[in-house]
Fold each of these.
Amino acid sequence: MKRFLAGKVSEIPEGSKKIIQAEGRSVGVYNIAGQYYALRNTCPHQGAELCSGITASYITSSGPGDFVYEREGEIVRCPWHQWEFDIKTGCMITDPKMRTKTYDVTVERYDVSVEENQVYVHL
């Protein structure tokens, strides 16, 4: 496994992201509550730069007019078609009630480590 320097801890403060290049791949490195996560910066739908999309909350609702923001800063929304992915797992967020032909959809997630105030992505 190779590791690539993403930058210093101070360059990726809590609640932010940094996009890096590693072996020809564009990778978004996120700091969520002091933990670092890395995603491939490509939406599997049509290839948009996923990590340039909005970082948002997961919104739940028990009915009309009632909504709750959960998991602040843990969801990235594709800038082209608004597909949403969990930054921590790389999994697509979908409405489980919707039924249609299914396809495997994933975003690659990479391991990240912090050593001597340097953030590394492991491919």
Amino acid sequence: MFLITKLGLGLLLCLVVTTAGQSTDASADRILGRWLFPKKQTCVEIYRENGRYFGRMAAISASCANDYGNINNQVVLTNLSYAGNEWKGGTMIHPSSGSKFDVEMRMTNANTLVATVYKGVRFISKELVLTRQQVTN
């Protein structure tokens, strides 16, 4: 009887550990998908690689291509990690200058992502509100 109880406790512990990790991944993965920048001329696709989140340019308008050149598929977000209810510790790279800025992101709802971009020191920042690009069939 003791062996069965010990085995049952071990299985229960494995189940709790496994499902806890999955729920965290599901919460963190809410950021995945395509997001439109405020002027809706460019779109970034956020993806996960090795537990971190990255973003590459997925679509750009003709006027944006004139300003920045061919930046399609260029990585512009790197190394975001999920902590609490935010994605932190990442870098945003300006597509034409290559300048790097610290970035943090949070979702206000399922279709709105707020990126806070820090220029040098923490009290100089800019917020960008991105909207989820709806998938059309």
Amino acid sequence: MSLKEQIDLDLKNSMKSGDKTRLNAIRSIRATLLEKEVSIRVAGKAVLTDEQEIEVLVSLAKKRRDAIEQFTAGNRPDLAAIELSELTVIEEYLPEPVSDDDVRAIVEDIVAKTGATSMKDIGKVMGQAMKALKGKADGTKVQEIVKSLLSV
């Protein structure tokens, strides 16, 4: 079952169950995926690839994390809680996150393959690392690990 079919099924189930928070989150995901499809449409109908769907979900999750941070800083725990519940729903559709140790191992492998030795090579390493870890690890965490390995 494709991600889009799964979201449609979950949307129906959420409507039946009456879970408003989950329903709103799934509607948001569905609408964003539809917007992305329309934006890439050239002639006729466009279908998103799995990578593009993951990009959309990663973007939505990042927006929710930023909003949680802003609402928490602005002393609005009620709004932060809503964003957190929506983030939880979005994360259900993302690939299983990779542990920090696994990220470090993948980055070390990329550093060895590229022959990177200094901070001058950070772009080369980050490009390959983010491609390998797309949707599985936070970009800032990957960047921290790359910097720690290259600054030695």
